Task: inverse folding
């Protein structure tokens, strides 16, 4: 599996209802997209647990073909035409856990952790995978970018995301056409 995210930081005075309206009108178009495990349409709003306004969808792909066909699809071009070409981050999935199958999440968290020097990366990754998500977690993924040696813990929550380190997002919509096909557990 592969993870992908782009984050579009918007002006401080941007009306975030514009994003809510956009997702309400267009979010369903990926509800049956081939190769997509899930897409969480995420938003952060300045002043509500966030220093910035941003739109930051997070994807888990079952197939690289699905991910590639999305990036070269008119659907993605529509986003580029509206907001400009975003930097698309890409990670390899190390672990995926589904804690509440079929549950729609209300919020999400993203915690970025650098893989420290001086210890074997495999040991650090194994320790990270042993952490159990807190109560209220719908699903969680641990992903890595080996070009930056950065581990990311991404969790979808049934209610409000708990306070703690990392970024908190509101989930506006969840497209999950192949959620039931996503491989659970350790991916290595």
Result:
């Amino acid at each position: 599996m592969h993870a992908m995210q782009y984050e579009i930081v918007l002006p401080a005075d941007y009306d975030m209802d514009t994003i809510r309206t956009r997702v309400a009108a267009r979010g369903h178009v990926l509800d049956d997209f081939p190769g997509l495990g899930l897409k969480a349409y995420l938003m952060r709003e300045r002043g509500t647990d966030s220093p910035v306004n941003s739109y930051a969808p997070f994807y888990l792909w079952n197939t690289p073909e699905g991910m590639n066909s999305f990036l070269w699809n008119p659907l993605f071009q529509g986003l580029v035409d509206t907001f400009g070409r975003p930097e698309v981050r890409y990670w390899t999935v190390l672990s995926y856990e589904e804690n509440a199958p079929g549950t729609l999440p209300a919020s999400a968290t993203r915690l970025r952790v650098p893989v420290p020097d001086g210890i074997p990366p495999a040991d650090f990754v194994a320790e990270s995978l042993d952490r159990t998500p807190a109560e209220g977690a719908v699903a969680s993924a641990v992903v890595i970018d080996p070009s930056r040696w950065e581990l990311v813990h991404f969790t979808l929550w049934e209610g409000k995301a708990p306070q703690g380190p990392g970024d908190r997002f509101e989930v506006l919509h969840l497209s999950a056409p192949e959620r039931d096909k996503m491989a659970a557990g350790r991916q290595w």
User: Anything to note?
Assistant: The chain has one domain: 2-186. The chain has a mean pLDDT of 93. The longest strand covers residues 88-98. The radius of gyration is 16 Å.
